[in-house]
Amino acid sequence: MRKISAKLISETVDKLVIKANMSLRPDVLKALKTALSQEKTNAARNALSAIIKNASIAKKEKLAICQDTGIPIIFVEIGNRVVVGGNISDIINVAIAKSYSKAYLRASIQADPVFRSKKPSYTPGIVHTDIVAGDKMRITILPKGFGSENKARVKMLNPTASIKQIEDFIVDSVRIAGANACPPYIIGVGIGGTQDLAGLLAKKALLRSIAKGNRDKKIALLEKGILEKINALKIGPFGLGGKNTALAVNIQTYPTHIAGLPIAVNISCHALRSASEIL
Amino acid sequence: MKKLNGILAKNKIKDLRCGQEVLYTGMIYTARDQAHKRFSEMLRKGKKLPVDIKEQIIYYCGPNPAAKGKVIGSCGPTTSSRMDELTPVLLKNGLRAMIGKGERSKEVVAAIKQYKAVYFTTYAGCGALLSGRVKKKKTVCFKDLGAEAVFALEVEDFPLIVAIDACGGNIYDK
Asked: Cβ contact (<8 Å) for A108 and B147?
């Protein structure tokens, strides 16, 4: 068995909080630059130039890319031959609060969701743990802004649903989000499993690089076709019209029951932020 | 690019048209979800607001705290539509302009037209860039709300795009 100390986990979380919030993912930045080269109108070009400039200012001046530093979502894959020196959720939440405070990031968590009575705090984040084979640990942080999270949708389709019905649900989700969730978007889609798993898959889909499609060729083709339909909506950067309503569609699948087809869409704004490290 | 300064009286904004880009220098108040809820409850009870919104600009924003030596942290706009239900009453009470991101409800568009106001959008998701345009920040009220408190921001050349103008012209109309 390999022991991973609370200290090492805390230090890693601190690094990942800073990296995710202040350095835009290289795959997203590259896609934004490609989008800029495709746009013809001033409105769309100015919007994309501002987004790219913002990413460079954030990195240089150590500022958050977006003031919505999100609800911190942490995915931890723990090898079955790893022993953790403490309670993993507690270690992570303490480290997040410390790191957010030190880096002057916003406290956006309301502890009392019903009566909204508390002053916003940094934590708790949402910690997902998976046990995997091996003696390593992978920590991934996704600070998810709520402008885009508010546009998430889930639907239980029939198992006989056509590909068109699947596509329509995803495209409609983007149409509903309209200009409100900071386009150009990255669209995470979860298909299969159960209602709750589909939602988680949609979120995990956002972690995959947008530089290449799904490893399954048929799914990759589906992603490409849906992206074309989304871009035909012409919502465009900042919702001011243009060719780039979304930069990518990432689909994640899981086997499901013969009686159903759960599908979930989780939209990310153009500031898709995540960072990952293996210990 | 058109420049606007100071208090935005009716005559200053009446010729603005949707799609037009503007650089604004002057004062704006941040207020988002919970501040709007408190404002509307106060007005419903006939109380005076802790901030005089007449002829003022409200910015839907919950900024990040300022690092040492800085005025403010990242400070971009939040989604305006969440404020829709609580907006017409503020326009009725003299609010002149709003800054946010995304579409507004039919009711808000109608109220903007009726009270000759204006709705601007700004660079959404670009809070780091926008933080450089804020020169001073002061907490006005609702400190218990943290980032959702009302702050007075003095801004210089703050980039705005007219989204809904006083005639009801709407940049998001397809």
From this structure: yes
Q: How far is CA B84 from the centre of its chain?
A: 13
CB B37 within 8 A of CB B86: yes
- Chain A contact residues (CB < 8 Å to B): 43, 46-47, 50-51, 53-55, 57-58, 61-69, 104-108, 116, 119-120, 147, 150, 178-182, 238-240, 269-271
Cβ atoms A13, A73 nearer than 8 A: no
10-residue mean pLDDT series, chain A (279 residues):
96 98 98 98 97 98 98 98 95 98 98 96 97 98 97 98 98 98 98 98 98 96 98 98 98 98 98 98
pTM for the whole thing?
A: 0.96
- Residue B108: both structure tokens together: 């808000």
Mean pLDDT, range B72-83, rounded to an integer = 98
Write the residue in A47, A63, A270 that is nearest to B131 by C-beta: A63
* Closest to B148 measured CA to CA, from B59, B32, B27, B29: B32
Q: How far apart are the first and last CA of chain B?
A: 25
* Residue at token pair 């300022």: B66
Indicate the average pLDDT of chain B.
96
Q: B79 vs A239: CB contact, 8 Å cut-off? A: no
Whole-number Å distance between alpha carbons of A32 and A38:
10
ipTM given for this complex: 0.95
Q: Where are the domains of chain B?
A: 24-169
Q: Given the structure tokens 């399954």, which residue do they identify? A: A216
Q: Where are the alpha helices (DSSP H) in chain A?
A: 6-22, 26-38, 42-61, 88-102, 146-149, 163-177, 195-205, 217-231
Write the CATH number of the domain with boundaries B24-169. Answer: 3.20.130.10
Cβ–Cβ gap A150/B146 under 8 Å: no
Q: Is A106 exposed, middle or buried (0-12, 13-18, 19+ CB in 10 A)?
A: buried
